[in-house]
């Protein structure tokens, strides 16, 4: 999914347009919709007219498009002004002919309810076991469901998704709420989604990362990443070598960026489900992303003292903000609001983001560009502009990949409309400029690259290699994907490609003038403010987009249409227009937009708002790497029984140096290198690495600091830490033990079976002996603290644990606690025992005896149990 506007007021990508919802229980047999959208609302003359003019499904010959006027008759195939109107008067039968064709099929598909789709997330065995649970446990029970006399279709696998790990189903909400088998399946999905094992994601949104082809050593940039469903897929690919219970530390990196600060936090929340020492989150305008500096290395990974290089990426995802008309099945508000200036206004930003990505790509690297829009101005036009400016790139032939995915080739030609009513279509940019009937203000809103290249250029660029996904092809949303690769070395520069073996930055052996021009270097010691401008100017010399204020104005004015302030703000950022330039922008004509006064006020207001937000929003603490011999690190690792092989040189903290350390994060060496050589403020670094240890809060040792403080392994960090935990320190549990943990918050040690009790007591004695802990009265403490239990795969009394499960626990004086949050416990309980055992206990019940929990039991803190409701997780509850 995606968004163009931040809050989705218009239902753009990622935004949630609130359509006219009425009775959520209702349905419409004809459309299959369950939200009772009035069928009459699912029409938009502008949309129909615009896309008919694009001839998405081939030239339909003589049929005129009612209401569309093409400027000038000189262009082949175009209808002259007046002529189109005359043709619109043709008998209905003739128009029907076209409307009953594929175009109408597409429109009907857009009017149908979008199936719910999800994929099994995570890179570990969870994927396999969860998929098996769905196929073997849930689907058989859903095969023959009849509800109120109608057969309800069961969930089916999405056939083009690798390994059958994505599913779809399309049932009304009331079935999910009232039909027992579907109700059970729905609860299962909700819980697994909450804990991150399932990602509810639109099927088409799963496509771009599959074409990115990420490997664990890759340096990857996700330029417009929030809310993060594709980021999660990329992380899974980076962690492809993880095992069922432990995570690898990939040598590559994923920088997930989004210009919207709030949305970067959603992104962080989403990606916490797949903890990765290789993840960084930044909060920048992708169209102006700064060069990242890393120490130079030789081809075999040896440092070259005193030399720095610009980090180039092996893989870049540009899932850009767009008008989002491909999401109309879900964001029904788009039916009402859609107009062609949405796409026109985003073209420049989209092109700039893609071109910035191209500049940051390593030789032989790959970029995937995607939108959830069908508009060629946001799609093929962007690709054509970027290819023209960067001839060392080419479109990859994607036909052999995901063969079961039905797609249509990219367009070679299209016809932009220059007004919001989709009435006036202009065949060429030159025709627009030459027109004596179109005013200068309107002309100033457009750039040449919004029009198709010549037929020869389009052929040479192989624009047909772009992929168009239409909703009627496989019952999905609409989407556009293009895969671009750099043909070898950029001219004049020798840049060593990254090596699969080395956990190192991309090394360059020579920094030629050409490279420097493409990616400005910090070595050049240019002040940051100036550097951004230089970079802009440099980009603009290589693109067909002029960098002057009229373009800023064009973009802004275009986005002013229909008063979409949020979209406009992004465009102002993208063009780096100064407030003066913005307020000096020509106002749109009456026909094309709001009044001069309105437009002027909005521009200044919008710009100021963003500037103010920018200054105030970035309040993140810097990251500090701790020295390996830091006393706290040493005691913390010793207490947690962590092996000396643990990479403690990449442990970092976020608190100011004079404050007690609360949480410790782990990164990989490349992330460390990036943080160490770049200003975190310049990168607007919002997250790095993954949190693995946290100080015990809420217990008796609450006040203790420094080496005497107790730290525990976080559930989310355990897969990363586990390979370094001493094997003999990992306790062994079985399904019986797990059940005791899940039946109570703080089960007493004595409630566990003898074998487990003995292990606990032995571990506690060892710990007490090792650390000589004292109780307040002087007695030896009974080895309280963080422990780890491995529950081995087994089948017992019909309960199947398909793979080993390793979980953190806390041992207090007389009781234990499973240190995963309540939702994760419920999900586990439902998956294994078919019921939520936690639902039977309340927090005050403690061990079930009515006793209050012990004082030294840590309560999961807010950060651990963060329940930021993401659009994705709330959606599964809300929409189904
Ligand atoms: C299509 S959505 C991305 C969806 C995301 N890739 C996913 O799969 O969850 C587009 C995102 O671009 C962000 N955005 C808009 N303008 C941007 C810019 N100039 N630089 C970076 N991000 C931008 C928006 O905040 C939005 O989150």
TrEMBL record:
Binding-site positions, S-adenosyl-L-methionine: 224-230, 258, 285, 319
Biased composition (Low complexity): 492-511
Stretches the record annotates as Disordered: 1-36, 77-99, 492-549, 574-622
Domain of life, source organism: Eukaryota
Record keywords: Methyltransferase, Nucleus, RNA-binding, S-adenosyl-L-methionine, Transferase, tRNA processing, tRNA-binding
Entry's localization field: Nucleus
Active site residues of this protein: 372
Family stated for the protein in its record: Belongs to the class I-like SAM-binding methyltransferase superfamily. RsmB/NOP family.
Protein's recorded name: SAM-dependent MTase RsmB/NOP-type domain-containing protein
């Amino acid at each position: 999914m995606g968004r163009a506007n931040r809050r989705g007021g218009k239902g753009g990508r990622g935004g949630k347009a609130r359509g006219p919802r009425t009775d959520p229980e209702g349905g419409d047999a004809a459309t299959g919709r369950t939200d009772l959208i009035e069928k009459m609302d699912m029409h938009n003359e502008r949309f129909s007219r615009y896309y008919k003019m694009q001839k998405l499904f081939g030239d339909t010959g003589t049929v005129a498009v009612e209401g569309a006027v093409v400027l000038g008759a000189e262009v082949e195939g175009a209808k002259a002004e007046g002529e189109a109107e005359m043709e619109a008067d043709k008998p209905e039968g003739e128009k029907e002919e076209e409307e009953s064709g594929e175009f109408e099929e597409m429109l009907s598909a857009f009017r149908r309810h979008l199936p719910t789709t999800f994929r099994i997330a995570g890179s570990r065995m969870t994927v396999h076991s969860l998929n098996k649970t769905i196929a073997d446990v849930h689907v058989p029970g859903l095969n023959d469901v009849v509800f109120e006399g109608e057969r309800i279709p069961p969930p089916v696998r999405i056939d083009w998704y690798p390994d059958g790990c994505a599913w779809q189903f399309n049932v009304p909400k009331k079935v999910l709420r009232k039909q027992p088998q579907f109700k059970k399946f729905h609860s299962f999905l909700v819980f697994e989604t909450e804990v991150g094992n399932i990602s509810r994601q639109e099927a088409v949104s799963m496509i771009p990362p599959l074409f990115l082809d990420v490997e664990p050593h890759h340096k990857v940039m996700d330029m417009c990443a929030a809310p993060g469903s594709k980021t999660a897929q990329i992380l899974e690919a980076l962690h492809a070598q993880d095992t069922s219970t432990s995570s690898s530390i990939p040598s590559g990196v994923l920088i997930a960026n989004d210009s919207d600060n709030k949305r970067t936090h959603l992104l962080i929340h989403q990606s916490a489900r797949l903890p990765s020492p290789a993840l960084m989150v930044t909060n920048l305008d992708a169209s102006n992303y700064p060069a990242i500096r890393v120490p130079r290395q030789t081809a075999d990974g040896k440092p070259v003292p005193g030399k720095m290089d610009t980090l180039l990426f092996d893989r870049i995802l540009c899932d850009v903000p767009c008008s989002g008309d491909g999401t109309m099945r879900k964001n029904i508000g788009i039916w009402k609001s859609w107009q062609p200036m949405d796409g026109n206004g985003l073209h420049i930003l989209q092109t700039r983001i893609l071109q910035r990505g191209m500049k940051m790509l390593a030789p032989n690297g790959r970029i995937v560009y995607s939108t959830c829009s069908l508009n060629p101005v946001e799609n093929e036009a962007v690709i054509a502009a970027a290819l023209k400016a960067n001839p060392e790139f080419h479109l990859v032939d994607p036909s052999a990949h995901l063969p079961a995915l039905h797609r249509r080739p990219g367009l070679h030609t299209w016809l932009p409309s220059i007004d919001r009513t989709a009435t006036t279509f202009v065949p060429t940019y030159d025709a627009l400029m030459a027109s004596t009937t179109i005013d200068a203000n309107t002309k100033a809103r457009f750039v040449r690259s919004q029009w198709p290249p010549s037929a020869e250029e389009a052929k040479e660029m192989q624009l047909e290699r772009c992929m168009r996904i239409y909703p009627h092809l496989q019952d999905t949303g609409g989407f556009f994907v293009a895969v671009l690769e750099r043909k070898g070395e950029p001219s004049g520069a020798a840049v060593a490609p990254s090596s699969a073996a080395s956990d190192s930055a991309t090394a360059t052996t020579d920094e030629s003038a050409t490279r420097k021009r493409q990616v400005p270097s910090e070595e050049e010691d240019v002040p940051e403010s100036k550097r951004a401008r230089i970079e802009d100017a440099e980009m603009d010399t290589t693109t067909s987009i002029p960098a002057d204020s009229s373009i800023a104005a064009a973009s802004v004015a275009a986005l002013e249409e229909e008063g979409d302030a949020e979209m406009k703000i992004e465009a102002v950022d993208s063009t780096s227009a100064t407030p003066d330039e913005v307020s000096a922008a020509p106002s749109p004509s009456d026909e094309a937009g709001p009044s001069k006064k309105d437009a002027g006020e909005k521009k200044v207001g919008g710009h100021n708002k963003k500037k103010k937000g920018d200054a105030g929003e970035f309040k993140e603490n810097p990251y500090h790497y701790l020295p390996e011999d830091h006393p706290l690190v040493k005691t913390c690792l010793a207490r947690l029984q962590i092996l000396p092989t643990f990479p403690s040189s990449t442990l970092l903290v976020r608190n100011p140096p004079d404050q007690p350390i609360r949480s410790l994060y782990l990164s990989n060496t490349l992330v460390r290198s990036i943080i160490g050589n770049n200003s975190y403020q310049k990168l607007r670094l919002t997250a790095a690495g993954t949190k693995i240890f946290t100080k015990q809060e809420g217990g008796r040792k609450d006040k203790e600091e420094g080496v005497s403080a107790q730290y525990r392994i976080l559930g989310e960090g355990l897969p990363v830490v586990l390979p370094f935990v001493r094997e003999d320190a990992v306790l062994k549990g079985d399904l019986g033990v797990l059940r005791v943990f899940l039946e109570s918050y703080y089960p007493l040690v004595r409630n566990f079976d003898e074998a487990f009790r003995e292990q606990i007591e032995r571990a506690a004695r060892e710990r007490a002996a090792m650390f000589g802990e004292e109780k307040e009265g002087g007695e030896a403490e009974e080895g309280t603290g963080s422990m780890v239990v491995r529950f081995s795969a087994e089948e017992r009394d019909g309960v199947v644990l398909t793979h080993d499960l390793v979980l953190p626990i806390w041992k207090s004086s007389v009781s234990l606690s499973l240190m995963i949050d309540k939702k994760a416990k419920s999900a586990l309980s439902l998956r294994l025992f078919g019921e939520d055992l936690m639902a039977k206990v309340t927090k005050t019940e403690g061990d079930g005896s009515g006793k209050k929990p012990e004082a030294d039991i840590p309560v999961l803190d807010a950060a651990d149990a963060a329940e930021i409701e993401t659009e994705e997780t709330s959606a599964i509850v809300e929409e189904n």
